[in-house]
Fold this sequence. Notes:
The chain is an alpha+beta fold. It has helices spanning 12-23, 39-48, 51-66, 89-96, 108-111, 115-122, 173-208, 275-278, 303-314, 321-329, 335-349, 385-394; strands spanning 71-77, 82-87, 126-129, 141-149, 156-165, 215-218, 224-228, 244-247, 253-258, 265-269, 281-283, 291-294, 297-300, 353-354, 359-360, 365-366. The longest helix has 36 residues, at 173-208.
Amino acid sequence: MMVAGKTRKIRPDVRASWARARHRGLHPDRHLPEIGLTTEELLSGRRESRMAAAWPVLFSTLEAAAAEPGTVLFGADAGGHLLWVHGDPAARRTAERANLVPGARWHEAAAGTNGVGTALALGRAFQVRGPEHYLSVAADFTCTAAPIRDPVSGRVIGAIDVTCRTSTANSLALPLVVAAARLAEAHLRDLARARDAELRTRYLDRVLHRNGDRGALVSRDGRVLYAAPPGWLPSIWPGPVREGETVLPDGRKVSVQRLAPMGPFAVHALPGIADTEHAPRVVALGRDRVSLWIDGAVHQLSRRHSELLILLLAHPTGLNAAALAEALYGQQGKSVTVRAELARLRRILGYRLSSDPYRLDPGISCDFGDLATGTSPLLAASSAPGIRQLRERLGRPEPATPDGG
Length: 405
């Protein structure tokens, strides 16, 4: 560190960074950053962190600079952990004595003033020159770093750093590192656009097949990828996206359906009327197929989906795939066939259809709940064993056969 008599020459940003380090209790001469990542965590970070997609562009841009004698290139995650270390072998051996190695945490909170850590703390490119480092073990280096931001969320996901001996520092290091960061962010932006386009191609029909007049496709991170009509939802979802019915900050009610385990989500507006009026309803008596009122739309289900829905309504605690297969097809029924049909039915029911076992949201009402005898058969055209048993249980007459029997 610089001696006290020269502190008036310290740049304000460095002075403030030193103050933060002292406040955290770091000692400039008796502290080394910890190697906080295990080998497994390090490899996972290189594969799965947000920086993993940016690193190839960063490395290709700065590879030539890293090959210069006395130079080392570092790539870190948002926590300041060094994930990648490349460069001149002799310089790397020197850096190792300061724990500038893969897995070490060089965030400012753990290492005081340094290129990676202070760039992350400030959220902008920064160069730390020689004795401006808080730790004395790094005082011979000049570190030039820039944060990398996710172009979609704007959050800092990591940092890139070029470190060299202070005696060989290049004045072009800062603009070079900034340029590499901008190229990496542009690459991430292109990847995000391609990913969004793929999601729209794959899932947009799941939004458009509903009859409601307001629908949207929302990404797992809350971005509205499609809305009809445009603008009926804010461009960013207000808070975490969760499946089910929810109320927007302006009081509008919407239903949210997960389309894949990790998103995206289909969002549809619910009518602005009392809950009892728009609660899902099933009409099955005296019909060959179920009519389902749900989220402001009416669906005429296929015969097989009608049977599945009725069986699940009749067993509120749920049924597994094997039990449903037997109720639909008899002892020859196959679970895999039922699972495929339920996956299709879930496109309409959304979060109201759960699995393990398969069961329905208790808020779905039906017209055959009254066990009193009546004259209208349940799904008259169905010969599924489970539906025939329900007719007997309900005391409804079996439908007449074509020959009058």
